[in-house]
Amino acid sequence: MSWPRWSSDEVLARRPRVRVNQLGYLPGRPMRATLVAEHVDPLPFVVVRADERVVHRGVSEPWPVRPEPTSGLPVHVLDLGDLPAGTYSVAAGSSRSHPFSVEDRLYAGLRTDALRFFSLMRSGTEIAAPGYERPAGHPDTSVPAWTGPDAERLYPGWHDDAAYDVSGGWYDAGDYGKYVTSGAIAVWQLLGTLDLTPDDPAVVDECRWQLDWLLRMQVPPGRPLAGMAFHRVHGSTWPPLPCWPHLDATERVLHRPSTTATLHLAAAAAAGARHLRRLDPAYAARLERAARSAFDAARSAPALLAPDDHARHGGGPYHDDVIADDRAWAASELWLATGDSAYESELPRAHEHGRDPFDPAGFDFDAVAAPAQLDLALHGSALTGHDQIVDRLRAGADRLLALQADQPWGQPYAPASGWAWGSNGRVLNNLVVLGMAHLVTGERSYADAVAIGADYLLGRNALGQSYVTGYGTDDSRHQRTRQFGHDLDPAMPPPPPGALAGGANSVPVPDFPYDDRLRGLPPQLCYLDEPTSEVTNDVCIRWNAPLVWVATFLTA
């Protein structure tokens, strides 16, 4: 095997003890590093240019809690000052950091590559990108609704004898499934970058590819559960790892529609209508009609839940037992897209569901109150009670600022219950909250916090690991995917630049393999850059989408 086998002690030993953002820092934004050191007293350090000229001298701030709980390490925080454009490294005693840059357009290349990841994840189309060429995989033009004993047991009383065109869309992760609840929030976040860079043609093209697929996942008139959205489409069994998409021989099937998928389709389609109306009024009208009909269908079937089949039938379940936040998101996006008072009247009731929209554990496909509140705060000034929505966003962002200030690594994420699968995506979603708070209020502290939080993802963390392929000296390069399976089959391509690894996961998940080497470690050390670590090193559109948003924010 071509990847380095992992142990936390070996990784920590070979990484610099001065942990920096290995991509670099933005001029005028905070520039901080973290030093791993046993010393309890402040330590001197210097910042040096590429020509070895010292440009800044400082003294470390020892972290008062030892060891620091998320990493299990004794650490110091370093303030690197306000460096001008250039290339630098940090030296503290005998330790030297990786080199890093300071430049205005630091995140522009990352934004481009993180967005290009979605093009490479397209289903049902030939990929011509150099180094990633492949024939079209999974045409999905005539996929049957799932039948048989397992389907009858999982979805009692549901029967649909038709086959449907559900072509297009993005593969969700390291598998070849396409899931409405994951795909909807991913396209919503890409659409949100149009608030930062309006009418960007690459973003518009990518979003239309996914929105077209979402429309195909809506059950047409005259069929069972018309207007609702099929929850997922994938093989009836898992394909081998690795596996070219066009060589996947598993039978593709559609799973029963769900209320959550239907409401997510309504939210994403409504957001698409709002963002794309000026560019393509006819397409926007089509999206609006789909969103309205989906919302009506969900009202007729308000509790059709997707069961948790523990991923035993070729795909992830993406189950969610709480519907109120999904309804709130759909109603919010429909009101913003249409101004229809019928949707406005839904909002007070829909938002009274008791779930904190800005839980510091981060929002995700199964907790979408935050997306509703974010768009209402930014675009809903005509809404009665808008001031309260902005206050709620500000309070949530302030909690994240306080949480970030308590972390010597700069990440606004540290759940005491354990770091979840896809923790990097949750870190990024918390950065989106902070970035949106800046857009709504104009307060600089929120924008600074986004830059500080990005440091964690790009190397200022316990492992000294940049979690984005191609960005940093010690970057994740061995993600667990079927389509970028070079580690397991040299004939296949490696993960592309801009692919984000899921990250540290300290909570074993039932029915998914958890590596014994991770058990009992501090949360930040629970990561394996190996192509078989599904629970720490998978890729996912739902994680790369907020990476695009954050990189766009830090560029724009």
From TrEMBL:
Source superkingdom: Bacteria
Membership in a protein family: Belongs to the glycosyl hydrolase 9 (cellulase E) family.
Record-level Gene Ontology MF annotations: hydrolase activity
Domain Glycoside hydrolase family: 107-550
CDD domains given in the database record: E_set_Cellulase_N
UniProt entry tagged with the keyword Ribonucleoprotein: no
UniProt KW Hydrolase keyword: yes
Cellulase Ig-like domain mapped to chain residues: 15-96
Keywords in alphabetical order: Carbohydrate metabolism, Glycosidase, Hydrolase, Polysaccharide degradation
SUPFAM superfamilies in the cross-refs: E set domains, Six-hairpin glycosidases
Protein name, entry field: Glycoside hydrolase family 9 protein
Species in which this protein is naturally found: Cellulomonas edaphi
InterPro entries assigned: 6-hairpin_glycosidase_sf, 6hp_glycosidase-like_sf, Cellulase_Ig-like, Glyco_hydro_9, Ig-like_fold, Ig_E-set
A Pfam family the protein falls into: Glyco_hydro_9
